[in-house]
Amino acid sequence: MVAKFDLTDDSVVVVIGTGAGGGVLSNELAQKGVKVVALEAGGRYLPEDYINDEWESFGQLAWTDPRTTSGDWRVAKDFSGLPAWIVKAVGGTTTHWAGASIRFQEHEWKALSTYGPVEGANLLDWPIDGEEMAPWYEKAEAKLGVTRTGDRAGLPGNNNFKVFEKGAKALGYTEVHTGRMAINSADYDDRMACQQTGFCFQGCKWGAKWSAAYTDIPRGEATGNLEVRDHAHVARILHDETGKVTGVEYFDKDGNLQLQKARIVCVAGNSFESPRLLLNSASEMFPNGLANSSDQVGRNYMRHTTGSVYAVFDKPVRMWRGTTMAGIVQDEARHDPERGFVGGYELETLSLGIPFMAAFLNPGGWGRSFTTALDSYENMAGMWIVGEDMPQATNRVTLSDVKDKYGLPVANVNFSDHPNDVAMRNHAYKQGMAMYEAVGATRTFPTPPYPSTHNLGTNRMSEKPEDGVCNKWGQTHDIANLFISDGSQFTTGAAENPTLTIVALAIRQADFISREMAAGTI
Amino acid sequence: MSKIERQGLTRRALLARSVAAGALVVTGAGFLAAPDAAWAMEVSVISEHQMATLLQMARDIYPHDKVADQFYAIAVKGYDAEDKKALVEEGVAALDAAAQAAGHADYVSMGWEEDRVQILQAMEDSGFFQTVRGGLVTGLYNQKDVWPIFGYEGESFSKGGYIERGFDDINWL
């Protein structure tokens, strides 16, 4: 039943990447009868392949192809070749994500109008809003089986959540619960309920967490309209003399260069690889890269204002047991400039095992200050900060001098915090530490950001072509049959974990593309 | 008595220290090895003194009083290799020179951890220090046998997760 399309078939839609954006888009198009070739750089792994071991799983799933970094963010010093912790596999980072699925708040679609101009920031309103997105969010929540939406119950709280919840309530926070999670609290959509195993980041071996790898991808393939080619590393998007894209060159699993013709190309390689591909596709007609007449390709890279707070107590917590991120405080997600910054942040439970804790608690740290923290690992609780960061024109993905094994320039990721990001992070550290101190923490650790998992904004959506790369449908302003289908189309980042919004946009984009194809406009 | 013996890092001394940890076996008169042969002080490329210094340095960088020497030895055994020899020679010589400048025979002879740590702090930016420290992050903490010492339970899927094994058993809140 799995389709096989000819390289010369120029009636297909080529989707590059199979994660939350590309994986969902591929399936949604296939369900509507559109023929799709999805090209995925990584391999195929299913729940039986996932590994309950942090480093071994990292070796299996993570994107570890070379990238370079610059800017004053600490990741550039501590993890200079690893700006992101994201996945190279069929299903993309939906294998690794924690499952937190929350909608943008109404005002976050209109950051510039709401916050006003912020010096040094390149803020802009999205060309869409909450009302327009509401029905697509509803479809996305049903697809992912998000708890606390529809009639789906919340997950039970684990030890880490109970400490977090008690601290939050002691501070007077009221919006505290086990999250809206794409992790089943009861059997749903042929996937079983969460078994509180931990290791959400390593791929859910029960399939209780939604991942495109074992939902949208096989369902799309079952229609006979979707062919997924794994180990297909895309090198370049080609175009004709009219400026329309015509196909995609990629290296296949044997390292041979192939050319797949296409009627439409959708780019969903994540916020590093998508702009890198557009820049690497520069031609005589488009010397600055495809869809880059605005010079915005690669700019406005956002990674959320993150950080963690860990704390140790005089008694055991065993935070690693159970769902990693089923716990949230939303009281600080509001926009309230009285706090000294615009936008807001969420606090979410988080835990790492000993191997990753050693690597990430205080990268480069050593000596007894560091080791006594780990000595109390069993008594440790943890949370993650995720807040809106400011888009900045100079935070950007460019082509590096370093080349990958195919000879293609890799992405350089330049990032420096905006003062608003720093003020927000410091506020969140203070609140997070206060939460734990209210429960009797004997020591707290304001932990720096990890390599980024939320990578956003490098091909942003804009009303006007001069302000961004794509329009409200993700269609590039410059090239009608070239689409952006991942988190790189985010105009601003909002405070929420981005996957639900990426999925909602992909469902909506599939609807648009199939409609326009039927009308013969693209 | 050789210098190594005076430093308490002979086979016999190590045996005495490690028998307490219950992990070493005597394989012959005067020889010892870890059960999986992962740790023996039989070094072939670098000297015993250099290995002893690396072991002490590893303990000083990531000191865990509950973690026995054998785990640190496993973490640094890879330095007994031709391609690491120059790095180790230079690095250990620098540690010993700094110790001697402070009035000690060499680095491992320094009695107090805080004195040794001062020497390490002064060379914190060196390639030698950063290589050894960076290697320990995985070399020490990614040993599955070390995890239980910290209470970490590791893999849980094969046991059915924690849904019936205490994911919410906290009782002191």
UniProtKB/TrEMBL annotation, chain A:
Pfam families attached to this UniProt entry: GMC_oxred_C (PF05199), GMC_oxred_N (PF00732)
Keywords: FAD, Flavoprotein, Oxidoreductase
Domain Glucose-methanol-choline oxidoreductase N-terminal positions: 88-305
Record's signal peptide: none
Statement: the UniProt record of this protein carries the keyword Magnesium: no
Annotated ranges, domain Glucose-methanol-choline oxidoreductase C-terminal: 391-506
InterPro entries: FAD/NAD-bd_sf (IPR036188), GMC_OxRdtase_N (IPR000172), GMC_OxRtase_C (IPR007867)
Family under the similarity heading: Belongs to the GMC oxidoreductase family.
This protein's name: GMC family oxidoreductase
Organism: Albidovulum sediminicola
UniProtKB/TrEMBL annotation, chain B:
InterPro entries, per the entry: TAT_signal
Domain of life of the native organism: Bacteria
Name used for this protein in its record: Twin-arginine translocation pathway signal
Species, as recorded: Albidovulum sediminicola
